[in-house]
Design a protein that fits this description.
homotrimer; 211 residues; mainly alpha; 8 helices; 74% helix; globular; signal (chains A, B, C); transmembrane (chains A, B, C); membrane (chains A, B, C); transmembrane helix (chains A, B, C); Gly_transporter (chains A, B, C)
Chain lengths: 211, 211, 211
């Protein structure tokens, strides 16, 4: 099935961009493979653990671990070339975002979850991998820093869910949701569209105000 | 039921204080909602995942996600006012601590867990949300920094468990446990009572001593 | 059984070295206990949550929590002495690595998982505790920084799995795998054998290249 092929390509692409992040932190080859695999598969894993949906995708299909590990190791060889293809990887990341979102919605819908959980499951699948990558790299998650990323995932999930609710054919709705999501994300990259930020400077910047 | 009402109010209060933490890090509006929701619901989620207690609270009652998200967004509008109400939010956080602890104990007791797991389940429910908030904010968890917080949760859980073991009526024990826990936490805030710290300075401060 | 005795000793040793890490960050006594317990039990917990293997080890045997907590508290008293025994603790950590790996493989094999998942389960059990410790301490995981650690876990798991596949007696295979794994890890410590690192310096060091 087409969705599955794109899903595997997106897994490899996510693993490769995460491997670059590992390289920027001088991680060893093992760390590169772990960071790539966690980033690529972490969203789906988090979704399945939260929904109690066992076995996890990569436990059922361990070959996916080989895909993400191979992609991460391959990155070590081709890092310099990837730099020139940066726009292509940003677009592949956008493809991953919408594909993972739709895969996540599918899992929740098959479990008969209500609309809010379907959308959240799609967003978790699309976005959490990058959050785990940033935690392992000891960064504040990029996801919260203004980029139009999670919002794209939410919109894709809404179109996909409500399109099917309105009786449209599932395949058509999937393609429409993916195209709109991908276009939105591409526009956000090109025109640097950002979410508004909440900038709060406490009057007293003391430690005790942390809680 | 009274406990449930207080539980929802505490969820909103935890989400609001976490939203302020997000604002101090200039997160975008989406990040504010995620940080608020993860902080408010993360303790119960961690408990349920560790105990294998599915479905999770917010998957069963997705409306709770709306409460935490709305509370976080509302914070953006009223941040300046909240600063003046800081003591009230500290007290609401104390209410949340004891209520979440008791809710967590209830879940473990209904599963027939032994005493140690009941107390740990209560503490996880009361305390882990703040740990997740600090990890996402890239801080060392405030929970480990000396405040009398987890200890209050442990004491509350012990009173609640052993009170019922001794045959006292559940409702009375719950109220007593909550009042004692809340009082302890308030005293700890007012008198800045702290846990002793373990200060260890290695003779050789080398990298290799990390492991 | 011998494996179980060594397992409990290793739990205590892992908890004690993590407690030292907590002391270097001036955590309070509660934080010391949590960091010790999470480091010692976190690998097995992560494995069980990912495999959907309930109840977790420490939920079934809450006494293990007492072991890790007592070991962590004990560390506060004997930190100065431990420094002189540093080599012993490094060796106990190596024992823990191979024992946890084999325990993890056993769990996955009893569930009938395929080879790749058995090896990954062993590695998760052996290595993830330290990653959780580093995340809670707000460090980039030491595991990814070049030490021959996860590789030792992988080799131990492979010997253990394939030895049994080849029809050798389980106990013999276990002892051989443990001895080889322990020897490899000790050699890596003594001769400072390291994994190669992936050092990637982006041509443009801008923020936008993060994704």
């Amino acid at each position: 099935m087409l969705l599955y092929t794109v899903f595997v390509i997106a897994l490899a692409a996510e693993s490769m961009t995460a491997a670059l992040a590992a390289g920027r932190r001088n991680m060893d080859w093992f760390g590169v493979c772990v960071l790539g695999s966690v980033t690529a598969l972490g969203g789906g894993t988090t979704r399945d653990v939260l929904l109690g949906h066992y076995p996890l995708v990569w436990v059922e299909q361990p070959a996916l671990l080989l895909v993400t590990t191979a992609a991460a190791l391959f990155t070590i060889a081709v890092a310099r070339v990837m730099e020139k293809l940066r726009m292509i990887f940003l677009l592949l990341d956008a493809v991953g975002l919408v594909v993972f979102t739709i895969v996540g919605c599918n899992v929740a819908m098959e479990m008969g979850q209500p609309v809010l959980i379907v959308i959240v499951a799609g967003m978790i699948t699309g976005c959490v991998g990058g959050v785990l990558r940033d935690i392992l790299c000891n960064d504040v998650p990029l996801l919260f820093s203004g980029e139009l990323y999670a919002t794209v995932s939410a919109i894709t999930a809404c179109i996909y869910f409500f399109g099917q609710q309105w009786g449209l054919p599932a395949e058509l709705v999937m393609i429409v949701a993916m195209v709109i999501g991908f276009t939105l994300r591409t526009l956000a990259i090109v025109f640097k569209i950002e979410m508004p930020r909440f900038v709060y400077v406490p009057v007293r910047g003391d430690q005790s105000s942390k809680r």
